Amino acid sequence: MSLSESLETYRCVDDWIVVAPNRCITVRTGKVDIGQRISTALALIAAEELDVDFSRIDVETVDTATSLDEEYTSASNSIERSGNAVRLAAATARGRLLELASGTLGVERSSLQVDDGLVTSLATNRSITYWELMEGLPFAVAIDPAVPLKPPHQYRQIGRQVLAKDLIELVRGGAPFVHDMHMPEMLHARLVRPPHYHARVATIDETIYSRLDGGYLLRDGSFVAVAAEDEFRAIRLAQRVASAIRWWPERGLDARDVFQRLTAEPSVSLPERRGGFRRTRSTV
Description:
Distance between the termini: 48 Å
Strand content: 15-25%
Helix content: 25-40%
Number of helices: 8
Largest sheet: 3 strands, mixed
Radius of gyration: 29 Å
Oligomer: single chain
CATH class of the largest domain: Alpha Beta
Number of strands: 15
Strand order of the largest sheet: 1-2-3
Shape: elongated
CATH topology of the largest domain: Aldehyde Oxidoreductase, domain 4
Structural class: alpha+beta
Number of domains: 2
CATH architecture of the largest domain: 2-Layer Sandwich
CATH superfamily of the largest domain: Aldehyde oxidase/xanthine dehydrogenase, molybdopterin binding domain
Mean pLDDT: 90
């Protein structure tokens, strides 16, 4: 399997797979859940190649301070890049774990089988778990792009019905979102938008400053915003401030027929070329 862009940057098994001491496996990624539940897909991929149950896979929450930099999250790009990387990393990790188990149990690797992270020798019936083999230590091996991958007819995890990661919390409203973040002395802000693009502030009723209810009014020319400790208060405050503003009666947006404007106005074409754009003018 060819290396994805993500694997070109992060080539170590430890970048992607961690055998956690809580008898779970942590999968690291730079892709975020934005409704498509990519965490569930990556967990299934890792569970399949590692031969552990899906419930044992934890997908690390993405944090710009510590997570892998896989650029953007969009469409099937997450499976193509992160899925590809996780699969190869998990398969390489499994091979390393079987190598360790072979040495620890004193048996041939070919006699080993894995069931939910328990490695058992068919020759001696002795067994050991992934967690006993690793004991919190790193793999310290590079990902092998030529590592044998499990063929589809041997799949036990992929294809079966599972409950998506964090789905219960999402349905119950308990899953945290970015707008649930709360920082010390944090304020919520709202813009006070003008009636149209060209509008400029003429005056603001001075009595509004006594009606802010503990909030703040910020103005820079015709840019007006409010801030408050409570988000709903900020929303209501923005409405109140908007009613206290008088805008200059400058021209609004062009009211001419859109089709006539599109066919009459000159267009600007910017054909792409190496090193930038070459500007040309034409008329529609």
